[in-house]
Amino acid sequence: MITPALTPAELQLAGRGTPRLLRCRVLQSPLAGVSDRIFRGLVRRWAPDALLFTEMVNATSLELGHGLQKVEELALEQGPIGVQLFDYRPAAMADAARRAEAAGAFLIDINMGCPVKKIAKKGGGSGLIRDPELAARIVNSVAAAVSIPVTVKTRLGWCGHDLDPVSWCRQLEDAGAQLLTLHGRTREQGFKGHADWEAIAAVKQALAIPVIANGDVNSAADALRCLAATKADGVMVGRGSMGAPWLVGQIDAALSGRPIPEAPGALERIALAREQLLALVEAKGEHGLLIARKHMGWTCSGFTGAPQLRHALMRAPTPADALALLDRASGELSHQG
């Protein structure tokens, strides 16, 4: 059997019996409290082939029966969706990976980059950077537990005094990671300062597996500059997509040489915020309004009256009140037009 040649935009991950083909060189980062099923559905409109992720899933919680919805709802979605896991116990991670694979995960991603203190201090997320041997055991255990590919998302190191990202990432590759997403900051930096794309370039040159660059990619132009600087196999978009689910699609178009779709205008943004609010309320009840507030605050920007609208939306006591504010703003903008 002859394997078709991959196009420049495609990446083949062999897995351990179940190969996966990435048709898009732009990945949407897992974002806690943001990248739920509803948000992913919006991203998918502009980027049908992009690899998206669930919110980060705690393997211990999954073991106890919590967080199951995050993986069980994969069956309701189209397109490739990875499940990102975190924990410090290899056996728990392996078990969680098996559950995620059974639920339909496209691949398993291991979080070794989250800078949140309550996660890192327990040895999960970026805490694993300080224990490379344990990190390697986790990758090895998860890779042995599933047939789908296993990937890792991490950072350059813990802090500026102990940086050796090439050695660190080589250990992850040797342990069985089939793709690495590298955020160009240390755990100490969090999201401050600038991402070090040169350090990502050094890792890319040293590794045989695909490397995805992450950090400071907030536009199509950023993505093109990042890939030129790092020679990475793709980019991951994170906080830049909050309130801008079209960003992944814009970058995909730029990397593919297609016309870049314009960002939605004021009326479209309001309609998008309205749609997301209704979907969250339907899924979560009154609590959906609390979740929707941040999304509406991000999405309703860049047009006349947006600051006042955001201020009012943050204080709307009920979903009906929020919908009335959005509808009134839409009507006023339509009248101005």
How would you portray this structure in words?
The protein is of the alpha/beta class. Helices cover 45% and strands 12% of the residues. Strands 3, 4, 5, 6, 7, 8, 9, 10 and 11 form a 9-stranded parallel sheet that branches. A two-stranded antiparallel ribbon has the order 1-2.
SSE layout:
Layout: E1 11-13, E2 20-22, E3 26-28, H1 37-46, E4 52-53, E5 57-58, H2 59-63, H3 68-72, E6 81-86, H4 90-103, E7 108-112, H5 117-120, H6 132-145, E8 150-155, H7 165-175, E9 180-183, H8 197-206, E10 211-214, H9 220-230, E11 234-237, H10 247-256, H11 266-284, H12 287-299, H13 306-313, H14 319-336
Parallel strand pairs: 3-11, 4-6, 5-6, 6-7, 7-8, 8-9, 9-10, 10-11
Antiparallel strand pairs: 1-2
Helix pairs in contact: 1-10, 4-6, 6-7, 7-8, 9-10, 11-12, 11-14
Given the structure, what is the number of helices?
Answer: 14
Q: What's the shape?
A: globular
Beta-strand percent range: 5-15%
What's the overall average pLDDT, rounded?
92
SS-based class: alpha/beta
Taking Cα atoms only, what radius of gyration do you get, to the nearest Å?
20 Å
Helical percentage: 40-55%
Largest sheet: 9 strands, parallel
Distance between the termini: 59 Å
Low-confidence stretches: 1-6
Could you spell the SSE succession in H and E letters?
EEEHEEHHEHEHHEHEHEHEHHHHH
For the secondary structure, the number of strands is: 11
